[in-house]
Protein 1
Amino acid sequence: MKPRIIIISLTSCSGCISTLISLDIFPQFLERTKIIHFPFILDVEKIEDCDIALVEGCISEDSEIGLLKEVRKHAKKVYALGTCAAYGGILSLSNSRNIKPISTYIEIDGIIPGCPPPSKLLGNILIRLIENKDTILSEKVLCSSCPLRGNMEENLDADIIKINPNPDEIVLGEENLDCFLKRGILCLGPITREGCESKCIKLGLPCEGCMGPVSKDFTSNIINFLSLVSLSEDLKNYEGIFYRFSKPKLRR
Amino acid sequence: MIVLLKIVDVCTRVEGHGTVKILVQNDEISSVDFEIGSNRGFESFLIGKKLNDVPKIVSRICGLCYASQTIASCKAIENMFEIAVPEQSILLRYLLLFGELIKSHTMHFFFQSLPDLFQIFEISQKPFSPYELIRYDSQLTTNVYELIKIGNEIERIFGGRSVHLITPIPGGLIYLPSRKNISIARKYFQRAIINLEWIIEKFIDVFSNHVPPKEYDLPNVMYLGLNNFDNFDRYRGTLKIKENERNSIEFAEKNYSSYFEKDINLRGIDFHFDKSKRFLVGPISRYKITENYEIDNINTYLEYFDKSWQNGVLFANFLRLLEMYFESQQGLKILDEPVLNRRIILPSLTSLKNSEGVGVIEAPRGMLLHHYYVDDNSLIKKAKIFIPTEINISIINDIITKFAQELYNKTGDINLVKKKIQTVIRAFDPCISCVAH
């Protein structure tokens, strides 16, 4: 029997779903599964029993909670597809909307993080899911596989003055570049899950944390991190650096 | 007694969450509205942000129009600094816009519009499911899948990843010249041209001798789009509003507010014209304001479609194929430019010249404009983002209301009405995420 699949979007940009549809393995995914609900490409509106549900987007309106719970009720496994579903995502920047990751309302069986999830990671997890195998995510931080790792210092005491290099400071293809933090540029590698193949870093830009945190206690990780670096006054007052893709659990 | 009945139907096979609201009064349809949920608030949470932080945030407005959003944002910021973006960066930005368009148009064509076209022209009684669709013609499926992959790979090679690009930044585009990448990209565009010729010819073969139903005709509209001396161009040029062959206006993007404006607290864009005028953006407008594509094949392909096609919204489905074809050819030309092989240093963004800036792009769905204002600390004070689908909603509502009223009078079948008006909405390829920015 082919596994039955539901794919829904809550508050999102559709980027995870467009990444999914454009995967090399998507035609294979279609052949090996039976999609029973996927409004992006399918007219069926009913939610029925399924083996795997993929949920894209965060909860930003009460009306979405009902749909999410309905999906949970009918699905053997529910996976959060992308950083919005897993951690809240980019709308964490919003002060006016109270956004939540889906795990606030339902129990989930796994996450596929990233904004959007890296194609390789997503493809591998999907194949394992349809083969009814366990999925594994790395629990290491991005620094552990960083190409600039060789030049990182254990006892970092860096003065951080900016969140991005100036365009004229970006150099590519050179050996022995210093770690961003050493150059005074904020990089969230130390508190972000690996798995993105360090794409931004290889292109001369620091990590902005789109893969989300490794540990559940993200806030204490940030506090630990801040004890290793000192932020300029300008950055201390700048909102949405650490909580760009996820909101702290306790706020106000 | 007046009986008021409100019927709401969820739109499927479109990007994002849209609904159709039909008001039935005394057994007659009084109005039909295509409705989109509330905004996510990007314009408000951009306030206080540093300029170089903005493009990657606005990319997240849309997972289909990410390149357009990012590049329009970069252009608005560069306008404030009055810096000259290196030609190499501009050419690479074109490639990213091409890759995005190929992916977005192909997904829409195959999964969203093709099942409707089969039904409208009575080739199939019910819409194909994705499973029926991939089995309909294996060559078509292969070609479509290659195109999606090509779009993706172009983004990955020049943008760093396939969605929410890394390389476009205010000032230019991060790029390490690689002859190998150029040669791979060339093969992709060459392949895209072959696949698109096949799909275009197939489209002509299957559909061109059918006459589109009158219900899909466009009313008299004003076409709005970016245009470069009458040539098709989605990055450089001036804005043009064209009513007909005799009546058109051209203006620089920075002067847009003489012609249209928005209130960020309200949905919709106001045009400073007679209220009865409707404005259209997207492939049909680009076609109407382009005098010449300078590719012989395109004119030959266009000749297969008479006025009955050219006056209707279904024609956009064919134009999307032609746009991909045109841009794949342009992509090949750009890849031959020697400037792509040079290592350059991007300009420094140090002294802000203006406290506001405007950037415009033709996104896959039409004109996209960003307007930012900064405070004394160079932080965003106000942001206005003009979304193409927001412009098209008035026309969509006009057409679906008329369509629904006539169909309901004739059949009394509200379920049929719900199904049919969605085919109109889908032909416009609305981007709901962008509207709900």
Note: Residues 62-74 of chain A form the longest helix (13 residues).
Protein 2
Amino acid sequence: MSTDSAPAYQEPDQEPDVPVAHAPPPGLLALFLAFARMSLAGFGGVLVFARHAIVDQHRWMTADEFNETFALCHFLPGPNIVNLSMVFGSRLRGIAGGVAAFTGLLLPPTLIMTLLAIMYARFGDVEVLRRILAGISCAAVGLLIAVVFRMMTPLLKRMDVVVIILMFGVFVAIGVLRLPLQAVLLVAIPLSIGITFLMRRTVAA
Amino acid sequence: MNSENPIWVLISTFGLMSLFAVGGAAAAVPEMQRIAVDVHHWMTDKQFADAYAIAQLSPGPNVLIVTLIGYAVAGIPGALAATLAMCLPTALLAYHISRLLNRPSQSRWPGLIQAALVPLSIGLMAASALILAQSTDRTIAALLLTALVAVIASVSRINPLWLLLAGGLLGFAGIV
């Protein structure tokens, strides 16, 4: 866990987002079921439900730990949430836990998707589905905005102005100016690592 | 010689694609479209658009659009092969890198790098939310629905599924 490897980062005056200790680590079946449940609830993306289940419902991670785990999976290649299931499960229960979470996340929706593929091949008309989808997408974007806001709160509470500016800079560069991702990250990643390094040295001193 | 076996083509195509899919499944969709429609002619343009809609609509990670592509190519074995090829290699890579970074050691660099990625990741997510909102919320009603859901989900701990169901019902009724 990040908190073990970097004790210097835990400033004494810093309040955790949710002042509750971790729940005990879940068993393999519980991991499988939890990820199956968040996956089956995850219409239009699973991140919203993953954070809800892991941080709010089961308290398996703090808001900060979830942010760090997700950030790592976000910058590694491949589907973020699939990476997250493997990394998260293995942090709690080793590789078996990783496989349990991975399988829970993918098996039920793959079966459903295969059924839908068979139905689509037979009927091939998704006009009603598409109307429903339009409504669901609007709500899904709203959920995404809310989850981004919740992920921001630990950062905003800490009031590290430089970190907040960095976050806002990436948002503007990609979301508003539409600069190419690689170029933005090429600048932002070294910058952020440098700033974090300087801040931690100040805290440790 | 192996290029005739469709299962093998699916595995090599999606296995390779996943390794370059930085930024998640949404970032890989244009490349999937190019390969499935233009390169291999597995699907028509309309079939691909329908597959995308179905993948968004149904539960589970949105990356499972590859399940539909795989099914179109080679039936149920194709669906399973495409899904595993897209998901398993990078998940194992993530597992090993995460273990490497969290190995107990004197070095504070691994924790530092992970912490440094957090604001960038959140900034990127915020940008995707904005871009998605611009393409989704084309009417006032749609924009209101998005804003309302964002506020409700921020201030309450309601299960997000209910909000999605409400959106689906409004869509079915033709309101948004």
Note: Chain B is about 80% helix and 0% strand.
